[in-house]
Amino acid sequence: MESAARTRLGIIFGGRSGEHEVSVTSAASVIEALDPNEFEIFAIGIKKSGELAAASEVLKMLPNSVQGRFVPRGFLESGESKLRLTSGASKEAPGDHPAPEIVFPLLHGPYGEDGTMQGLLEIAGVPYIGCGVLASAVGMDKDFMKRLFLQAGLPVLPWRVLPSRDALADLSALKNLVRKEFGYPVFSKPVSLGSSVGVRKIHDEGELEEAIRLTAQFDRKVLIEKGIDARELECGVLGNDDAEASVVGEIFPSREFYDYDAKYVNPSRLEIPACIEESKSREIRDLALRAFHAIDGSGLSRADFFAERPTGKIWINEINTMPGFTPISMYSKVWAATGVCFEELVRRLIRLGLERYQERRGMRISA
Question: What's the confidence (pLDDT) of residue 3?
């Protein structure tokens, strides 16, 4: 007999970004891992077109392995404000199921992880897991993220940002800039995408134009960043104001660098905990927490670092405010190695989301 005290958890997944499939896999992994006697899961899908999926479409979006473990919904409603978001094609009624107590927006990339979905949930009065509007937006914009890191005294590699529309307007000047300020290799990155979509490693001047031209297709701003010979290390953060850092994990890319293919197509090898000196581990954990607080994070994040091979110097690369929850994702693995199993991780995230929601509700918004 199922318990009447199950936590009603809404999971929003899919989305318009190039990380749609990653989001679907994350959602399926979470649904499969959670005990149905403890969690009543409502799955809300967003199609690649950006439309909210009808319940019948939600069923088709998720794999057979999780069918029967969730309630598909073509709408999202707030139990408090009664605001209801629905698929234009949906004829569904709320029925006997109450609104989710909290929502897990398992969306990666633009239109989900960048503060847009968080803002929608704030307006609707829906409690949710993870960072708020500001932290999510800053965490997605690599340029402003790095500016805040610099202001907080965090070690950041040299970078420049160019408007995509005229990044190649003066190729000769661009070549001179890269030669004088960075040298080779450098990386070109879309400022506001994740999972290394659109990222290119540029080994020499002859590759510069083609790489910039490709990266510019993915964002209105192109970030050019100095490349170094380094180990790739990651650390998870869990909490709100009193957040904790996990053990450090290391990635051994299956390709030249940790690009989309090395993340999801030909998965790279992970080593958890990383084989590094304890002093370096402490430094990375401290930097991960400082980065989290620098963007006003809440709930969770994953901070990515470089350990420069010739010098051992630690550089922070970026912070991810909604890391993947796929079977090969680093975030849940580093917390498991820290002693927090997957279900306990989700329980904590729910508590943290509700805690932050109650805190915001208690604030005055008028005189």
Answer: 47
